[in-house]
């Protein structure tokens, strides 16, 4: 490739790179992915980035196709020059990196490793700006790819620039690049004919005949590397229908012509060793009886490889060309030689990989070695690498029973790593094998897990039921757990009435009843409307010591709590989930915890807390490269009466459902009913509430029933309202909570028009922490009083409603109260903007944590951002809120009660 000084036709690309470097120099970090076909000039642009970054600390890494099975191998390359800064990291993050790099034993969490990399790089950047340069990013191992994507998304307030070169995704590109392609992208396109002519002239010292030059330009098709390689091949590479990169490889292979067998074998040996370590190459060459001085000189003369302190090929395509030009027997021989000289103590995984590549057929010893590699990879947080090792172990397994067990483990690990298609393909290989019932149950369970990840695949619950049937005699307790799994996942997927009935029918027929009723028995009873049997069991399960139901089935626990009108359990679930989430670094647990906290805060009328918890969930989702969870955001927009925002979220959720996405359909329609009742759009509220209750799932119907009663009464549908009230009353009486009694009372008041019902509602709800329900009770009572012409009494209730609903952020209902007050001849004062209306979501999350006493480094760890980003947010928070210190922030009225 031409050097960076000969970048021709790349003015726009150079400008983008220069802008990135300039912004990082000024403390505004960022990332840029250079995407394009092989040979297009990405590596040369990386050289330009390094030249532009004068005064920067430059960290380099390069992906290697043959090292994708080794977790964190590329990240280790990047960080080796700055490992002395490990001492500056908090203990947990220092340990996470030491474990990830194989310097210590333990099991790191990917998020902890990602945050540790962020802290390490930002620590280095405190002395001078940092440039991270990653070539061949399409071959990064999965753990390194995830960590680099995490880092790239979090350096916005740090003097850190990250430039990655990535071969444009194609059918042969690993799925691990997905997170990288979501980063800012710059397509590196082919050169124009004029630019190609300029480059060819500059790099060719001899004048070319015009016809030869034009043919070279036409055949190179704007690819700079092809343009420079074609003349070396005499310009006689047939273009045929192959791609330009393929023709470049053909050119590299053409250089092998005329070489001795020893020289070709030495080149093949070098291409098979991703480390480029002469300490491995020369002993392996000796083991193959290669005449090293003669073969080495001939190989170097091709220009394909450089033998120095590190063995380097002139281009990744050259390595690929040499490797794939070798015959199978030669490849097995070179891998066998490399395995022989690789230290089994310091590099057991690389040795096992070479042994696997050297195997002619099944080899139980090598298969067991690869299984041990998988265990080591997993212990270092490399789940994707573990899946790769296990898959290769399966292929080499000789013992049929061990092959089945390894396949099941490989599929399980592949699912965990997100390699769903490969896991599914591997699972099919043992479906016709001789399996016992327990193994077939495992196949069904793994199939169900795969199904739940695939849009449009509704077979998951049925497969789980099949597994439960198989386990009913072998392991009755596990069978009952399977039925619970099928029920919970069906309910989370939503609109699952048919599947829920199928699961319950199978459970009744197959699962042996325990000596005392358990959660499964309670669910069966609940489905049969036997609330007196089911609800006490639900209550016991929610309040059992140790929070077993919360930890294993947080979604089911939350749905049960909603059905019981339980005001304490949802917050307790959220608080309980945060601790294991923080300890394990599990983004899913943390996101569920903050979504749960946000949802309960919405219902409690603590808008600031709801927004801050939502912001924390969003920050973790962003760090994980995932979209934020939707349902608490939808409920928040609905309660605030934000029609456009709520309907947009509703459309997105509905689209996800129609394409097989997960979620609770009843939840969607409940939120829509709340939105429309708040906006006094009662026909729309009636339609949504009917969807939630008449076609809803096992749970969440109860909380939607009050919306149906209100909308039906307002739409003059007394029969609908009466039926809904009857169902609500039966459920609430069984639950026996104050909140349930209060909501039932105002719903009954709507139907009966009896004043005592409204008074009972207000009395019950005054002791409930869920202020919006109390505000709505005052609102409905005030509306009733105004219709009766009792002006003084109605003003008292409506003012109370407006104050409560406004302070709770229930703006839609507050506007209804304001309209009623104006209709009664009263003037309604506007309110000043609160903190949550002045700050962005992430600023609010930072403000909430700082107000609770957290230091900047603790906030950074919590929100997966750098300390500099926290400090930048704090400066904006202070300015927007008019405070000058953390103490003033702690005492700010809008942040109290955080």
Number of strands: 7
CATH-assigned homologous superfamily of the domain at 4-187: P-loop containing nucleotide triphosphate hydrolases
Q: Based on the structure given, which CATH architecture of the domain at 4-187 is correct?
A: 3-Layer(aba) Sandwich
Mean pLDDT: 85
Q: In angstroms, what is the radius of gyration? A: 33 Å
Compute the number of helices: 48
- Biggest pleated-sheet summary: 5 strands, parallel
Q: Please bin the fraction of helical residues.
A: 55-70%
Structural class per helix/strand content? mainly alpha
Low-confidence stretches: 170-175, 233-242, 658-663
User: How much β-strand is present in the residues?
Assistant: under 5%
Quaternary assembly: single chain
Q: How far apart are the termini? A: 58 Å
Shape: globular
Widest sheet: strand ordering: 2-3-4-1-5
CATH C-level class of the domain at 4-187:
Alpha Beta
Under CATH, the topology of the domain at 4-187 is which? Answer: Rossmann fold
Short note summarizing the structure:
66% of the residues lie in helices and 4% in strands. The protein is globular. Among the domains are: 4-187, Rossmann fold, CATH 3.40.50; 193-254, no CATH class; 451-512; 543-629; 837-890, Orthogonal Bundle (Arc Repressor Mutant, subunit A).
């Amino acid at each position: 490739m031409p050097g960076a000084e000969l970048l021709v036709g790349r003015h726009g690309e150079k400008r983008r790179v220069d802008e990135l470097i300039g912004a990082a120099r000024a403390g505004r970090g960022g990332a840029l992915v250079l995407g394009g076909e092989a040979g297009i000039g990405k590596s040369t642009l990386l050289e330009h980035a390094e030249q532009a970054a004068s005064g920067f600390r430059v960290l380099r890494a390069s992906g290697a196709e043959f090292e994708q099975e080794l977790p964190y191998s590329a990240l280790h390359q990047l960080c080796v020059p700055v490992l002395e800064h490990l001492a500056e990291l908090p203990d947990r993050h220092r340990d996470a990196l030491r474990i990830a790099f194989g310097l210590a034993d333990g099991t790191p969490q990917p998020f902890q490793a990602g945050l540790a990399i962020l802290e390490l790089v930002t620590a280095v950047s405190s002395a001078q700006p940092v440039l991270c340069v990653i070539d061949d990013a399409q071959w990064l191992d999965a753990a390194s790819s995830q960590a680099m994507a995490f880092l790239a998304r979090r350096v916005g307030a740090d003097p850190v620039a990250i430039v990655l070169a990535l071969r444009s995704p194609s059918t042969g590109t690993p799925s691990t690049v997905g997170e990288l392609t979501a980063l800012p992208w710059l397509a590196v396109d082919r050169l124009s004919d004029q630019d190609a002519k300029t480059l060819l002239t500059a790099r060719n010292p001899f004048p070319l005949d015009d016809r030869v030059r034009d043919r070279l330009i036409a055949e190179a098709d704007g690819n700079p590397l092809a343009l420079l390689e074609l003349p070396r091949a005499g310009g006689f590479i047939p273009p045929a229908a192959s791609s330009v990169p393929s023709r470049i490889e053909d050119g590299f292979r053409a250089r092998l012509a005329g070489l001795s067998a020893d020289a070709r074998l030495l080149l093949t040996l070098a291409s098979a060793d991703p480390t480029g370590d002469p300490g491995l190459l020369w002993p392996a060459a000796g083991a193959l009886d290669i005449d090293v001085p003669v073969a080495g000189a001939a190989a170097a003369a091709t220009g394909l490889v450089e033998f120095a302190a590190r063995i380097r090929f002139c281009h990744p395509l050259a390595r690929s060309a040499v490797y794939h030009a070798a015959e199978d027997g030669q490849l097995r021989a070179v891998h066998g030689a490399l395995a022989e000289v690789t230290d089994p103590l310091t590099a057991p995984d690389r040795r096992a990989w070479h042994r696997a590549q050297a195997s002619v057929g099944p080899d139980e010893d090598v298969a067991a070695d690869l299984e041990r590699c998988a265990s080591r990879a997993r212990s270092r947080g490399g789940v994707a690498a573990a899946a790769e090792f296990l898959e290769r172990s399966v292929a080499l397994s000789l013992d049929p029973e061990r092959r089945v067990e390894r396949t099941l483990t490989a599929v399980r690990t592949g699912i965990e790593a997100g390699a769903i298609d490969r896991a599914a393909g591997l699972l099919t290989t043992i479906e016709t094998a001789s399996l016992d019932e327990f193994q077939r149950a495992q196949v069904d369970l793994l199939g169900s897990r795969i199904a739940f990840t695939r849009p449009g695949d509704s077979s998951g619950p049925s497969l789980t039921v099949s597994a439960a049937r198989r386990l009913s005699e072998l392991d009755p307790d596990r069978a009952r757990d399977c039925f619970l799994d099928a029920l919970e996942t069906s309910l989370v997927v939503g609109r699952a009435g048919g599947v829920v009935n199928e699961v319950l029918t199978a459970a009744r027929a197959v699962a042996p009843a325990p000596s005392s009723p358990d959660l499964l028995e309670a669910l069966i009873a609940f489905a049969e409307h036997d609330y007196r049997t089911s609800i006490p069991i639900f209550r016991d399960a929610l309040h059992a010591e140790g929070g077993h139901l919360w930890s294993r089935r947080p979604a089911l626990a939350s749905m049960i709590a909603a059905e019981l009108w339980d005001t304490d359990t949802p917050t307790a679930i959220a608080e309980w989930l945060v601790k294991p989430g923080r300890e394990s670094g599990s983004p899913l647990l943390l996101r569920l915890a903050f979504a749960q906290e946000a949802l309960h805060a919405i219902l409690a009328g603590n808008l600031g807390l709801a927004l801050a918890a939502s912001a924390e969930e969003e920050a973790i989702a962003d760090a994980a490269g995932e979209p934020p969870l939707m349902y608490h955001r939808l409920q928040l927009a609905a309660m605030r009466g934000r029609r456009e925002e709520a309907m947009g979220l509703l459309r997105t959720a509905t689209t996800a459902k129609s394409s097989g996405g997960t979620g609770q359909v009843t939840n969607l329609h409940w939120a829509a009913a709340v939105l429309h009742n708040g906006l006094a759009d009662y026909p729309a509220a009636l339609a949504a509430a009917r969807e939630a209750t008449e076609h809803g799932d096992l749970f969440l119907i109860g909380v939607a029933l009050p919306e149906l009663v209100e909308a039906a009464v307002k739409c003059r549908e007394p029969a609908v309202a009466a039926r809904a009230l009857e169902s609500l009353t039966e459920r609430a009486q069984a639950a026996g909570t104050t909140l349930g009694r209060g909501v039932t009372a105002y719903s009954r008041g709507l139907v009966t028009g009896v004043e005592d019902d409204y008074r009972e509602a207000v009395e019950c709800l005054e002791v409930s922490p869920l202020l919006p329900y109390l505000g709505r009770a005052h609102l409905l009572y005030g509306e009733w009083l105004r219709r009766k012409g009792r002006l003084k009494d109605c003003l008292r209730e409506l003012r109370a409603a407006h104050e409560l609903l406004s302070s709770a952020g229930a703006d839609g209902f507050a506007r209804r109260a304001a309209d009623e007050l104006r209709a009664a001849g009263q003037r309604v004062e506007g309110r000043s903007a609160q903190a949550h209306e002045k700050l962005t979501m992430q600023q609010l999350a930072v403000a909430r944590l700082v107000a609770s006493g957290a230091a900047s480094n603790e906030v950074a760890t919590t929100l997966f951002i750098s300390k500099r980003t926290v400090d930048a947010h704090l400066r904006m928070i202070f300015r927007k809120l008019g405070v000058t210190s953390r103490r003033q922030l702690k005492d700010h009225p809008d942040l109290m009660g955080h």
